[in-house]
Amino acid sequence: MVFNTGMVGYPESMTDPSYNGQILTFTYPLIGNYGVPDVSQRDEYGIEKYIESDRIQVSGIVIHDLSLVSNHWNSIMTLDEWLYKEQIPGMYDIDTRKLTKKLREEGVMMCALIVSDSDNISTQEVQMKLKRTEIYNQRNFMDRVSTRKTQRLGANSKNVVVIDTGTKNSILRNIMNAGYGIIKMPWNTKIDDILSYKPDGVIISNGPGDPKMCVDTIKTANILLECNMPILGICLGAQILALADDAKTYKLKYGHRSQNKPCINIDNSRTYITSQNHGYCIDSDSLKNSGFKLWFINADDKTVEGIKHKKNKSIAVQFHPEAAPGPYDCKYIFDSFKKIMEENRTCPK
Question: 2-133 in CATH: which number?
């Protein structure tokens, strides 16, 4: 069970692969008030236009007040109709702020969403089932969220390989807006297969779960770092990059999931408002043992929000520069990555 403090963007949040395997609580009291857009509609690149993947990724949602009427110009169905269509459970009329306080005090935890017409739900029986359930930290979600085969988006002389550990559509869209084609590859793709495409750069995407479970991706990232391939890590991808270069990660008590998280760029002391969705973080003290240095910090709790390599052409951010949903303050991260890719580089075959 996790919570998100965003006021808008429930279609994007619910389809974000980083939420796979989680029951999502929205703290904003009214959810569904602008309905659901046509989730099948695609943009000029053939990417789903209004959602972040091809399906709802959350295991369920919990909200306070469900809006059953929508007069929004872009709505074609209500939230509950969408959930029913995709067979995702939801629960409303819950004091979500009280629930959020519990999660803040106790930390995110395993949970069950139970609905019954009677009052004879056995709490003890539910708790026993939970004890027999594999805990979130021990799951490898890559088979659920990663592409199973290589996909190409856009024919271009300049291409970026996206190692798919749960990629959001908006990341793909921003790369294509920058003038690059995309080669989207499974999370455990071998390094030789990646380099065979002679990419201008590599993105390691966002995604769910403990980054330490992505052993194959960590090994690949280590080789990419050694050959000075331009790399951008986003969210889970940032954690994977850190682990690939001898830094460490840890689990946050209740994570950062919102559209209003202030982060400070320590290079220029400017504060940016960011969109975030992560439950794990890079250990700042461990960076001294790696080739990375601190780039961004969270203004609230001083946790690591961005790193850049001291020598190589690699950068990574914990927040979401594609910011869907959320503010556009940090879209310049893609410009920084493009600048890195445009510099001359050498990488072994």
Answer: 3.50.30.20
Question: 64 catalytic, yes or no?
Answer: no
Q: Catalytic: 322?
A: yes
Residue 235 appears among annotated catalytic residues? yes
Q: Residue 336 has which token pair?
A: 């920084």
Look at residue 257 and give its three-state secondary structure. Answer: strand
Task: Spot the catalytic one: 235, 263, 281, 330.
Answer: 235
CATH numeric code, 142-342: 3.40.50.880
Catalytic residue (choose from 278, 309, 322, 330): 322
pLDDT by residue for the chain (349 residues), tens only, comes to 999 999 999 999 999 999 999 999 999 999 999 999 999 999 999 999 999 999 999 999 999 999 998 889 999 999 999 999 999 999 999 999 999 999 999 999 999 998 887 778 888 999 999 999 999 999 999 999 999 999 999 978 899 999 999 999 999 999 999 999 999 999 999 999 999 999 999 999 999 999 999 999 999 999 999 999 999 999 999 999 999 999 999 999 999 999 999 999 999 999 999 999 999 999 999 999 999 999 999 999 999 999 999 999 999 999 999 999 999 999 999 999 999 999 865 565 5
Domain residue limits, the chain = 2-133, 142-342
Rounded Cα distance between 46 and 49, Å, is 8
Q: How far apart are CA 136 and CA 332, in angstroms?
A: 33
Which one of 64, 256, 309, 320 is the catalytic residue?
320
pTM: 0.96
The 3-state DSSP class for residue 122 equals coil
